[in-house]
Amino acid sequence: MATGGDKRSFAQDFFFELMRDSQRVRAVYLAERERWIRGLDISGREEILFELEMLLRGIDRFFNLRNLFGEAQPPQDRDWREELKASRDAVHRSVHLARKLIAQRQEQALLFRSFVEGSLADDRARGRLGAELREQRTPEESLFLLRSGLVAHQGILDHLLRLDAAPQTLFLDVGRALQHELFVSRYFCPPSALEFRAEYDRVSSVRLLEALRHLDDDKQRKAFALALLASFRTLRSLRYVPAPPTPHTRRVLVILALVRSEMHALVGYLESDLPRLCATAEGVGAVAAAGRAAAQPLRDVLGRVPPILTMPLTDRAQLDEQRDAFVGATKDAIGAIARALDPALGKAELFEDEGARIAQSERLRRDLWVFREMCLNTARALLQNSADLHAAEALRRYATEFRDVGYQLLRHSDRELFDRFLDLLEGWSSRRGESTAIRLQRLREDCLRFADILDRAMELVGKRAELQKLPIDEAAYQQALAKAL
Predict the structure, then answer these.
(1) Residue 282 pLDDT more than 80?
(2) What ranges in 65-197 are assigned the alpha helix state H?
(3) For the chain, which residues make up each domain, given as ranges?
């Protein structure tokens, strides 16, 4: 493994490549969508997008009968109206979330285009306007088109639910129509079980990020990172099945079906793909054992907990029990992966309880503080000696370390400014057509500007509730700075 100035960033090499690899041919659209969501001036946009795409994935998986009944066959005379109500609820919520993600001015423009298209008597002109929107040239157009389709499906479901009964064939036909609506979306086609999105998928545990960073084998890092991303996504989805006293909505059935589907996919990955991806000339050995150990609690809970439609849909206690069982099994799986990465890691310190949140926020605050001081130190050193390459190189090394942990704890929307400066540091010494003196002068100015950005970021992090009673540990921060220097 490369070290020092030659060491490439784990976060840059693995999390970003991992997400790009999982997105395959749609990477161009998704990169444009990333830029769009970063520039969207809407509070909580990443969480809204996560819930939207979770429900879109859930709608797709809800019409796979194995996710509802397991290997059992549903009775031929079953009335499927309750399942149709659950899917209608998920569609309704998806429409609401999609509306939140379109800025007001853009929303008005798209609604006006839609109104004009519906008002034109000339079918040729109407066809041209409709074709423009169906091209989905921007994320907003794609989202508006998806939303319009879901609104129409919601109206159809409202009328179907007035029937005296809904046979299985009707339920499956509704599913095929909805799946077609979802999968023609260029920018919001729901991701598969092991396909990730940079906007919201992350490993938020500081200890796990550190453990991944210290793995020497690149293949193992990538393979374990994928398993962790899938596991943390499952935990996040289960937060949308609320605990008492918050009432359940019918769409929790859609979410639980999705979780069951993605758990099956994760079991297959842990038992088969993880050992294969980590194979060496000596074999798979310890990695295969780690994969089986992580898959076992998931396999056990899938065998122990009955599929959702084999129990009464109104039984709140069983639905809560199912959520808790899935949460516990997923945490056990993450704990097994953690022990494979570092035997000293315990399950209690890995998750988003009070202690883990404090650890994440404190680590981010410390890293931002050290980064700010490194920038100021580099600017001072270059002012005193414009040819001081040592200070610039020390800053570049620290930026590489920051990518691996602190950067992962940032909100996605906050990363753009960091990306620009980190990329600048990565390539400052190789700019063509500029003398070293000019490059270093520009670096000094950039360091001062970025120090101000870091100062504001640290101030915002310091306002988090979990840090209100936790003052900065000056001695520890100075020690971290001395190590970086």
Answers:
(1) no
(2) 65-69, 81-100, 104-119, 123-134, 139-160, 168-183
(3) 43-183, 206-349, 354-484
- Contact between residue 8 and residue 400 where contact means Cβ atoms under 8 Å apart: yes
Residue type at position 73: Q
d(CA 326, CA 235): 8
Using a 10 angstrom Cβ sphere, with 0-12 exposed, 13-18 middle and 19 or more buried, the burial of residue 271 is: middle
Q: Give me the amino acid identity at 198.
A: A
**Residue whose token pair is 């939207």:** 52
Strand residue runs (E) in 325-415 = none
Q: Answer for the pair 269, 230: CB distance below 8 angstroms, yes or no.
A: yes
Amino acid at 234: T
- Asked if residues 454 and 372 have their Cβ atoms less than 8 Å apart, the reply is yes
User: Which of 23-32, 114-123, 192-201, 250-259 is predicted most confidently?
Assistant: 250-259
Q: List, for residues 14-52, the tens digit of each pLDDT value.
A: 565 666 565 555 678 888 888 888 888 888 888 999 999
Distances (CA, A) of 426 to 85, 290, 395: 53, 35, 10
Residue pair 358/330 in contact (Cβ under 8 Å)? The answer is no
pTM listed for this prediction? 0.76
**Token reading at 108:** 């008005």
| For residues 411-425, average pLDDT | 74
Cis peptide before 75 (omega within 30 of 0): no
Please name every residue paired with 283 in a beta bridge, in sequence order, or none if there are none: 280
Interacting residues of 276 by C-beta distance below 8 A, sequence separation 6+: 284
Query: What confidence tens digit (pLDDT) does each residue in 115-163 have?
Result: 666 666 566 766 666 666 678 888 998 999 999 999 999 999 999 999 9
Tokens found for residue 44: 């909580």
Please state, in angstroms and rounded to a whole number, the distance separating the CA atoms of residues 238 and 160: 29
